[in-house]
């Protein structure tokens, strides 16, 4: 580093005569490094301790290999498919699948790491090196170095002639600028879409799957039985007083169309809580203006989608008649048109007008919700 | 002669109309027994005529035997004191007393009866469908593996691991405390049994690979343990790597 070392550079003849140790020492010296301690961990070769250390390292690597092989075998042949717990033997082996994968792979990685570390600790010499500080005690570089470096940079810039080639400058600016813009927009691009266009109807967020496809079409109240293609409609007598059921819309046009039947259960604004109040509670109900005839007797239907940020609000307390949202603890009063009584929600849950179809005796929706369900959006005024 | 008599008697016993007196004698004995238990343990809150006491306990007329079975067999009734929610505790009444009180309450206005079977007989064979129905109807309050959760004002949905098959079934039928009722027309008996199977398949150490469920609440407790144990292991390994090797 310093000019002293440069003066001590060996001649070509001297260099040819130096052995490896001398070359190592010279290399250190040129960098201002001096090895004050450089012990051979095993000065006497072939001792028992050295052999034991060697065996220890080999043992760790062998463990790593065996565990890795076990991982490979378990990955391919272990019974991974779910076994019902009644079949206790099969369930036991199945339940060990992930632990076995984790333990074998973990042991393999860990044993390899330990082997490497033990080797480093036992066999690599632990030298103590001293290096001269060369930071000018924070004063920075000499004036001569600063000026020559600045001149070097300026020279490179001017010789590249970029300053007077404006076509290249502009096109490069365009390329880099657009690339940067693309990188910026990458996390935001998910927000650029029209939520109205993705809804099944032309009116987008303003309507749910409870809207009839054509005037006069009946929209029935459907129960989910765990079989997505089964059509089970709901009658008033199906529900006890003090019960709640999550229901979905069904239109005759969906019959036989397994895709549509399944989609009706999955569309986000479709789930409705059909609540049958206990008679003494039903006497206390306060109805919202304009929704006086939305209930059918003791049956009230509210959307399951919270008006705050759209979580499913299906925690219904049948004694207190409160509807709870588990995400942010909003509470709605089922006896009071599901208006919010606690928590961050500010709007009542949308109520679905229901009645009984006189021809079939099943519950039907008289119309779609009269307001959008779920959280607010830009165009929404209320 | 005696053989003929026996045959005639046997035939008569077979074909004679159901002797109503026999049942009527049998039932009131159980009901009378139940009235005794009721007067000793339930009357102060639920009233002499089962019509409830204002501010203490609701009317029991028409609630049915299923509700009585659930509340007493899980120890929730008799209640120790008035509070947000009756908690599960060891049953105070013996099974015979529970049967008797159940018959007594059933004789006042009828109501839903708990299933005749119990234990394994109440498990369905389709736990996948049970799981689907559990997630739709039960999981919002009871958590996806039945670990329970908070409700409003200090109330909570209890964990389901301790509940027997019959207790789970009776709870679905009778809707205890703030739980909605699920009639047999809403969830058929087969569907209820599938739900019971699902609950059993994810509790009592089932579906618990690794052996330590960490509460079964999912990522929060698992993340905490992973972080504490993982960071501890990394710190330990770092110290070991940095330490100077000693010679044996």
Q: For the record, what CATH class of the largest domain in chain B applies?
A: Mainly Alpha
Low-confidence stretches of chain B: 19-25
Number of helices of chain B: 10
Shape estimate of chain A? elongated
Compressed to H and E, one letter per element, the order of chain A equals HHHEHHHEHHHEEEHEHEEEEEEE
What CATH architecture label of the largest domain in chain B applies?
Orthogonal Bundle
Q: What does this entry look like structurally?
A:
The complex is a heterodimer of chains A (382) and B (248). Helix content of chain A is 37%, strand content 14%. Chain A is built from eleven helices and 13 strands. Chain A has helices spanning 3-7, 12-17, 20-30, 48-77, 88-95, 97-123, 143-159, 166-185, 195-198, 258-266, 279-282, and strands at residues 33-37, 128-131, 219-223, 232-233, 243-251, 272-276, 299-303, 315-317, 322-324, 331-333, 339-342, 354-356, 363-365. In chain A, strands 3, 4, 5, 6, 7, 12 and 13 form a seven-stranded antiparallel β-sheet that branches. In chain A, strands 8-9-10-11 form a four-stranded antiparallel β-sheet, with no helix packed on it. Chain A has a two-stranded antiparallel ribbon with strand order 1-2. In chain A, helix 4 packs antiparallel against helix 6. The longest helix of chain A has 30 residues, at 48-77. Chain B is mainly α and 248 residues long. Chain B has two domains: 24-114, Orthogonal Bundle (Cytochrome Bc1 Complex, Chain D, domain 2); 116-205, Cytochrome Bc1 Complex, Chain D, domain 2 (Orthogonal Bundle), CATH 1.10.760. Helices cover 50% and strands 2% of the residues of chain B. Chain B has a two-stranded antiparallel ribbon with strand order 1-2. The longest helix of chain B is centred in the C-terminal third of the chain and has 24 residues, at 219-242. The radius of gyration of chain B is 26 Å and the shape is elongated. Mean pLDDT of chain B is 85; it is low at 19-25. The interface between A and B is large, with 46 and 43 residues.
